[in-house]
Amino acid sequence: MLPWTAGAGGLFSRDFYHLALGHLAPGGIVCQWLPLHQLSVDDLERIVATFATVFPHVQLWVAYHRSLTPLAALVGSAEPLTADAGSMRARLADPAFVAMARSVGLDDPDGVGLLYVTDGVHLRAATRDVAPITDDRPTIEFSAPRAYYHQEGLGAAALAWIAARLDPAAAPVSGAPPAPFALRANLLQAQLALLAGDHPGELQAYLDALALAPEARPVHEALAAIAEERRRAGDLVTANAVMQAMELATARAAHAADQPPPASADASTDRR
């Protein structure tokens, strides 16, 4: 339910989160999506603070990058949270599931780590002084509807708040290529540039991401979309330059994969 909907405040309260935690089966999770383009930063902080004080283990993810309506997801559990790309690949063998996942751009297990933002430790530190939402003090019942009618700039402000809390550690996804801080930061910067209407800035952020992860499918898809937009706008120079950058990155990655690994330090040390 959307936070600004009448009566929805109870679904973002500390009381509700305690009920949800108490009903989790072993290994179960609670996932709550957040429409960043319809939330003020104050409301975002209150929701995060409330969620993170209840669930022992918490993670924050973004839903995708190249969108003017940014979304995020809070994930909470009683047990440590671990994403496994191998399990995702197994589920994607189901034709019905893969069709659903593809419709929202989540059919690439190798790219899931690029959506990771941070964990509960960082979120609690960022919101330690924020009062939680409770059933007897449902502040969001009044603030969220007010923000809804003043949406201009909300998405950029909320996403900037999220980007400032990016976990310096790599994304906690096993069985997939690493998604380090710098790569995830570039992708968030690309979306912030998109929201600001800064198309050159968005393109540069994706090119920086391409240099860090030349085989990342989400980066290639974003750049291909930008190239197509530039082509339709009659800017063939930029469109061709983007496609050439992608081809060069792919060729370099393939060449690097064919090279033998460097000699280890022990093997190259003079043992005389």
Describe this structure in words.
By secondary structure, this protein is α+β, with helices and mostly antiparallel strands. The chain contains twelve helices and six strands. It has two domains: 1-177, 3-Layer(aba) Sandwich (Rossmann fold); 180-258, Alpha Horseshoe (Serine Threonine Protein Phosphatase 5, Tetratricopeptide repeat), CATH 1.25.40. The strands form two sheets. It has a four-stranded antiparallel β-sheet with strand order 1-3-2-5. α7 runs antiparallel to α8 (181-195), α8 (181-195) runs antiparallel to α9 and α9 packs antiparallel against α10. Residues 264-272 have low confidence and may be disordered.
Helicity level: 40-55%
What overall form do the CA principal axes indicate? globular
Number of strands: 6
Coarse structural class: alpha+beta
Give the domain tally.
2
| Main sheet properties | 4 strands, antiparallel
Taken in chain order, the helices and strands follow as HEHEEEHHEHHHEHHHHH
Percentage of residues in DSSP E strands: 5-15%
Cross-sheet strand order for the largest sheet:
1-3-2-5
Q: What labels describe this entry?
A:
single chain; 272 residues; alpha+beta; Rossmann fold; Serine Threonine Protein Phosphatase 5, Tetratricopeptide repeat; 2 domains; 6 strands; globular
